[in-house]
Design goal:
The protein is 5% helix and 38% strand. The protein is mainly β. Strands 22-24-25-26-27-28-29-30 form an eight-stranded antiparallel barrel. Strand 29 and strand 30 form a beta hairpin. 55% of the residues are buried. Residues 393-496 form the Extracellular endo-alpha-(1->5)-L-arabinanase C-terminal domain.
Length: 502
């Protein structure tokens, strides 16, 4: 069982960018510029001499979808790329490109010949893998023409996560212009889905579902046969959850959290390339097939472009709690720091540990000043007091949620507000100080209050944000630091990372 992409009228250049390069090394090695922070703010160290310095190895899998099998995590993505890890820090690449030597699907052009012919494509988009009751692994693959939603989705099956997978055939098609579509009506890209970006999951009652879709007519969900993995008959394209009129919403991923008893629908808004403003958003529901609402209570079914429009970002930007977008942590005045940041992070999957409840988000990201190069990243996800996920500011390095003492909290932080926009703009950190008396000063002002072991409420410029404190490894400082991640009622995420003295 699974433990725990692309559009109408997408530019072909975006498809090329979706898996163009294998990148090794860490992000942004060049020294960062000063932010112009208030030099009167005191920067204190929170380093422990006994800390172990973590290490990382990098892989490139665009649109990584996670499954855990045994003691290993696997991610599968676009262009038949895949990788695995046991500790979420050190990765091993398994496959990289669509060719007949790919170990996942050998002789792939023959094996999936019908799919490539329909999609008029020679590559594959975001895959998803799940293990069903027969113990076999079911890969939901898909191919798309790229400049239209002419796509095909099918299932290939293997005895092992690493394959080889054998095709069982196409299950859905889209883009049949002026012809009968899967629901018996003439295909219309403004209301019908692009059959890509599948995520197949079990709900809390053991029912199997598939959520999918990108741009075009929106995001849809279908109930699946748990024996065959195929859609139950008579559903057409399934039930629509949100989107439409070519709005830039894609990469749906649904995960149930037993601690909150909600289903969380993660989505990527914007364009996937370095100037596309890709960002990760979330909504939730008590039922796997919705309705899904965001943290402000807005029904996501209304998140769509205006009639007659393409890529109407202004219409969709108010919807969904925005958890992460473009950002960079740079050196504050008086601090030695190597810039860290992400550009167009997105197309995520999520894993919830069935025993501990620990939650991790997997996504690909580009980096400031590095073009279309991209790597996989894993971050810890925590639930705030209102039952909404917040993403830890730094990549996972083995940290756990522990009790935090007030004396560990006070000090200067690099502060990022992710905003609500869909934009290529990069949110640069500014300086704020969490004072021992519970006040906040600097580029924003207000108060902070810690309760429980690591819950925090920050009221900044009149807006309340609820989240978590977490001690993390900061690669830019080469040190462990205190961080916070919090979310406002309107779905705006803020991050803080403790600054260090020279």
């Amino acid at each position: 069982m699974k433990q725990s992409k692309k559009t109408a009228l997408v530019l072909l250049s975006c498809l090329t960018a979706a898996g163009s390069s294998i990148v090794n090394g860490t992000a942004a090695a060049s020294p960062a510029a000063q932010t112009g922070a208030d030099s009167s703010l005191t920067i204190e160290s929170v380093v422990n001499k006994t800390d172990t310095i973590p290490s990382f190895s990098e892989v490139t899998v665009h649109d990584p979808s996670v499954i855990k099998s045994g003691d290993s995590f696997y991610v599968f993505g676009s262009h038949l790329a895949s990788a695995k890890t046991q500790d979420l820090m050190h990765w091993q690449q398994i496959s990289t490109v669509v060719d007949n030597n790919n170990p996942l699907i050998p002789n792939v052009f023959e094996e999936l010949g019908e799919t490539f012919e329909w999609a008029q494509s020679n590559t594959l988009w975001a895959a998803d893998v799940i293990q069903l009751a027969d113990g076999k692994y079911y890969m939901y693959y898909n191919a798309c023409k790229g400049d239209s939603p002419r796509s095909a989705m099918g299932i290939a099956v293997a005895d092992r996560p690493e394959g080889p997978y054998k095709d069982t055939g196409i299950i859905l098609k889209s883009g049949m212009w002026d012809d009968i579509s899967e629901d018996g009506t003439i295909y219309d890209a403004t209301i019908h889905p692009n059959v890509v970006d599948p995520d197949v999951f079990f709900d809390k009652n053991g029912k199997l579902w598939m959520v999918y879709g990108s741009y075009s007519g929106g995001i849809f969900i279908m109930e699946m046969d748990p024996q065959t993995g195929k859609p139950l008959p008579g559903q057409g394209y399934g039930k629509k959850l949100l989107g439409g009129n070519h709005s830039r919403i894609e990469a749906p991923y649904i995960v149930y959290n037993p601690q909150t008893d909600y289903y969380y629908l993660y989505l990527s808004f914007g364009g996937l390339d370095a100037v596309g403003g890709y960002n990760i958003r979330v909504a939730r529901s008590k039922s796997p097939d919705g309705p899904y609402v965001d943290s402000a209570g807005k029904d996501m079914i209304n998140a769509k472009g205006a009639d007659g429009t393409f890529f109407d970002d202004a219409a969709i930007a108010p919807y969904g709690a925005k958890l992460i977008g473009n950002f960079k942590f740079t050196a504050l005045a008086g601090e030695k720091y190597t810039e860290q940041g992400y550009v167009s992070p997105g197309h995520n999957s999520v894993y919830v540990d069935p025993k501990s409840g620990e939650t991790f988000i997997f996504f690909h990201t580009r980096f400031p000043g590095r073009g279309e190069e991209h790597q996989v990243r894993v971050h810890r996800v925590m639930m705030n007091e209102d039952g909404w996920p917040v993403i830890a500011p730094h990549r996972y390095a083995g940290e756990t949620e522990t009790s935090v003492q007030p004396k560990e909290i006070a000090g200067v932080y690099k502060y990022v507000n992710h905003g609500r926009d869909i934009s290529a703009d990069i949110k640069s950190a500014t300086a704020i100080e969490l004072n021992k008396n519970g006040t906040v000063t600097g580029t924003v002002s207000g108060t902070w209050n810690k309760n429980g072991k690591n819950n925090v409420t920050l009221t900044l410029n009149g807006t309340a944000y609820k989240g978590k404190f977490l001690r993390q490894w900061d690669s830019g400082a080469q040190s462990y630091v205190m961080t916070f991640s919090a979310l406002s009622g309107d779905g705006t995420a803020i991050w803080g990372s403790h600054a260090l003295s020279k």
